[in-house]
Amino acid sequence: MVQQFIQKLLDNPNFKGQPLSLIETHISNFIQQNKQNLAPVFTKQFFPDLNSDSATDKIQNLVKQTISEQIITASRNIYPYSINFEVLVNAGILTNLNQSDFFSYLTKYTEAALVSKEFRQKLDQVNIVLNEKMIETYVSKAFENKTYTYTELHRIDNHHFNLEVLTEYMKLAAIVSASYAIKMNLSGHNESVNAFDIGKDLKQMENYIEISKSNRLKLFSCIPENIWTTAAHVTLDHYINKEVEPIAKVLRIFIYRAKDHRTNIKIDKGSETPDKSWFSIQMKNAGYLGIDKAILEDLNRLAFEMRK
Amino acid sequence: MLTNRKYNATLGPFFENFIIISIILVLILTIIDELSIIYLWPLSIHRILVITGFLFDLIFTIEFFVRLQMSYSNNGLVHYIKHERGWVDFISSVPLLLLNSGPEIAIMIFPDMLHGNDATLTYLGTLKIVKAVRVTRILRLLRMIKILGKIQNTESTMTNRHMAVISTTTTVSIIVVYAFLSIFHFTGLQEIESSKTRLYSEQINNIFYNKENKINIEDYTEKGIKNFITTLYFRPGEENSEIVSIYYKSELIMSNYTETYLKNHFNYHPEKTPLLKFMDANIISFQHEDFILTLNLHDIQAEKAKLNILIFILALSTILSLLFIYSRHFVQNISDVVHVIKKGMEDDKYMFSVRINEAFENDEIFELAKEYNKNYLPEKAVQNDSNESTNTGGLTIDNFF
């Protein structure tokens, strides 16, 4: 009965097309704000043996668990068809790894979603990036048109990957970048923080990466160091750290884009397309989000050209 | 206090649909009516068209008074007349019934009712008026506007109202200007009719003017004149001849038309005196000296009918252009822009920027849209981000349970 109630909540028309992690936030906020009114109902209807606070916590946990499971399921469904491991293995980026091994790592990796809200959110956003094929679409078009993003990715970035390798590399980097959302206790911080929280402080970032190394290896020991580095750069504010890898700059934009992505949304006749709208809106907020405005402008042009 | 009050002058779905169908039919009827004039269809068909036209005008007149009464009962008389096109209902119904189809059907059914003390004067006077007000038939076309009002081609109230105003203004201008030009003989066709009458009068006059000089004819006896005129105007078998018949001292001296043809195609009353035999817009009879000439001016009436069809097509094409070309332009460059901005201001979750039409980017509306895109939306995005920790996504207690 309680599970039906939670599913009904998730299916609320107000949440139509929204990312799962955002729905979780909305529900959590609502329960927090209306705790006084809701708690007696939770106790009466679902948990007669629990007091108000415990019943509310129980509901919050059930919501979290349900959404975590849905995100994990989505990840497990999306990754296998999104990433071409052979390309990465052939390019020498992944070694001594077969596909089934990789998925067992992924299973272990995604399970962290159950314990970390921030990780869950980033994982959800990465799922959207992969599911919506943002990397393939925009990077391919940038290569095709030899735009600013192409110059950044291909010529300036030290990797010098071809398009096929680059897109697979970026996808894997996007997946592992979510792990930097896991919070840890760092000296100088009263509360636990993640890499995205301290993205403006390079010294703290180095500290975070060092401490998290063991965790990361536990999660995904098969991933080579350069991908972890690229993924770490995703968390960095472009305007503070000028050495951010171009791949990470592009990924950071896509992950932020995914946060505001809505599926099956009706596009009004006088409006721009969803991607074009988002890119043009965030150009003014590039500093606020710590994303590269020049790449954003380029993606905005590509979105216009592709009517995305 | 003014509110969004409903001034209910609607007749219910059945009657509203009935009226719409009637309007479409009357527009078709108007075209058929003009075609019947151009091709001089038999009188029997013309009579059916007159009766049908009268019935439609009667229906629309009744409709107008019913709506007027309903709006009056709802204290919305002014609103109905001014904003719901009550004035269009009026000018496309009452004047037509009183000046056009009403008199036409009256003459058709009761031809003798016009014969008072001075029968000739009454008869000819009425004929003249009927011919002059025939042009008011064009006012039927105004009913097109009513159909337009029913076509809500966009979801935007502003666009629909704007289109209604501009279509009404344009159509009324075209039709009313044309009606005035016709009534005051600015189309030139009336002059042709007058000049033809004058021409034949002068010809008859010349015969007598030259009597002393004996230029035209040898024999100026009554018989000689009759023979001369017959020779001059007789076109046997030519039923498109302008001269229908000539009477001399009330005696028919020649006719280019057979009685059957006259009966079938014209409002012809053989039993009446020569001057009163025709009650038909195509025929004109006039007296000169002892002669009464009857002319068939159908070609002029046909030209008038063609002009009416031209005006109908002009008005219709103007409305269609406005509806499908201009309204699209208005929607794309005005109402869609306003719609997106309004939605963005009302709905926290709506984060679409306005598409700017580069061709008109300096228009005030796009200047506003640029401001909205460049400043309002980015600030809203930051605001939404800041509020994320408190935002409930629109959940309420009601939809929570």
Describe the protein.
The complex is a heterodimer of chains A (308) and B (401). Chain A is mainly alpha-helical and 308 residues long. Chain A is globular, with a radius of gyration of 20 Å. Helix content of chain A is 67%, strand content 0%. The model of chain A has no long low-confidence stretch (mean pLDDT 88). The N terminus of chain B is likely disordered. A 4-stranded antiparallel β-sheet of chain B has the order 2-1-4-3, with helices on one face. Helices cover 63% and strands 6% of the residues of chain B. In chain B, helix 1 runs antiparallel to helix 12 and helix 9 packs antiparallel against helix 12. The radius of gyration of chain B is 32 Å and the shape is elongated. Chain B contains 14 helices and 4 strands. The interface between A and B is large, with 37 and 34 residues.
Write the layout of secondary structure elements.
The complex is a heterodimer of chains A (308) and B (401).
Chain A: H1 2-10, H2 20-33, H3 35-45, H4 52-82, H5 85-90, H6 99-110, H7 117-131, H8 134-145, H9 148-156, H10 163-177, H11 202-220, H12 225-234, H13 246-259, H14 274-284, H15 286-289, H16 293-306
Chain B: H1 13-38, H2 43-73, H3 77-83, H4 86-91, H5 94-109, H6 119-133, H7 143-150, H8 157-183, H9 189-209, H10 222-233, E1 243-248, E2 251-255, H11 259-265, E3 283-288, E4 291-296, H12 298-346, H13 364-386, H14 397-400
Antiparallel strand pairs in B: 1-2, 1-4, 3-4
Helix pairs in contact in B: 1-2, 1-7, 1-12, 2-3, 2-5, 8-12, 9-12, 12-13
